[in-house]
């Protein structure tokens, strides 16, 4: 069984009730954080997961809303890890990730210096291992495998989706993307597809062109649902709602998805949890 928790279902627009984009995946005793939007560690704490307990941080792309708390994850996984010789934080993302991580470590350079000066048992900066991929198998440990494929969020490029498998269960995390064949292939037959969605039917009516622009490179609810249908997944889990559904509107989102996909449809607030079983 793979357990998915939507830690943050928000978007770049700050929302009092929704943290930024981030999904927790627990599989085979391992814990993966997929993207690390605003407030992610507060939400993770709500389900008993701390930064030091992460098996890996997986980044779909380097948009600010998806990496807003990268510094917090790196620093907290270091400062709040009391093991004598903790292993490096594993970070897997698209090309560009190493540069962003290095710049983040530099931005926190003063903080890192203060802590090393103050605590005798902190003698070196946060240990991190960054792995950049656009395709292929990126993880194979103790029964959990992770495969990556390119997505299409241009002009943001490269961007990747992840397929996590454990004991016959499989989950695909698409991130931000328009429909594309490489995502279809990655998601084929998966137990669940976690897909970011925007309501293009609403967003196109916003007066600001900068808001309308986001329709170019995201999937609508119907497009994400059509991807789920083409790939034959069991469950579509929508997240990263733009605009955020107001209470009572969830059924409308579900019916829009159901026009394209006849499997199980999930959406919810932060901390919404879905169990994905072997098919
Ligand atoms: Zn994005
Ligand atoms: Zn986004």
Q: Can you tag this structure with a few keywords?
A:
279 residues; alpha/beta; Metallo-beta-lactamase, Chain A; seven-stranded mixed sheet; 28% helix; binds zinc ion; zinc; 3'-tRNA processing endoribonuclease activity; hydrolase
Protein described:
Helices cover 28% and strands 29% of the residues. The protein has 279 residues and is of the alpha/beta class. It has one domain (2-276): 4-Layer Sandwich (Metallo-beta-lactamase, Chain A), CATH 3.60.15.10. One zinc ion is lined by residues 21, 63, 65-66, 176, 196, 240. The active site is at 65 (proton acceptor). It is an enzyme of class 3 (hydrolase). InterPro entries: AtsA-like_MBL-fold, Metallo-B-lactamas, RibonucZ/Hydroxyglut_hydro, RNase_Z/BN.
């Amino acid at each position: 069984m793979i357990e998915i928790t939507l830690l943050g279902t928000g978007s770049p627009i700050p929302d009092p009730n929704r943290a930024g984009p981030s999904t927790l995946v627990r599989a085979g005793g391992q814990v993966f954080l997929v993207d690390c939007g605003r407030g992610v560690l507060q939400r993770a704490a709500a389900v008993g997961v701390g930064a030091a307990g992460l098996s890996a941080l997986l980044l779909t792309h380097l948009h600010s809303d998806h990496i807003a708390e990268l510094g917090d994850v790196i620093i907290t996984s270091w400062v709040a890890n009391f093991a004598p010789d903790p292993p490096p934080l594993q970070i897997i993302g698209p090309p560009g990730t190493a540069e962003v991580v290095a710049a983040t470590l530099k931005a926190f350079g003063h903080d890192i210096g203060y802590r090393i000066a103050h605590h005798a048992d902190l003698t070196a900066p946060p240990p991190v291992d960054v792995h950049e991929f656009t395709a292929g198998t990126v993880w194979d440990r103790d029964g959990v495998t992770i495969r990556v494929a390119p997505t299409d969020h241009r002009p943001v490029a490269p961007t990747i989706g992840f397929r996590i498998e454990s004991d016959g269960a499989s989950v695909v995390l698409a991130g931000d993307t328009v429909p594309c064949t490489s995502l279809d292939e990655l998601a084929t037959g998966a137990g669940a597809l976690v897909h970011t969605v925007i309501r293009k039917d609403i967003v196109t009516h916003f007066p600001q062109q900068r808001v309308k622009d986001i329709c170019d490179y995201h999937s609508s609810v119907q497009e994400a649902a059509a991807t789920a249908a083409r790939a034959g997944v069991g469950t579509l889990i929508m997240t990263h709602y733009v605009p955020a559904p107001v209470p009572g509107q969830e059924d409308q989102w579900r019916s829009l998805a159901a026009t394209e996909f006849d499997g199980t449809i999930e959406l919810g607030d932060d901390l919404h949890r879905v169990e994905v079983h072997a098919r």
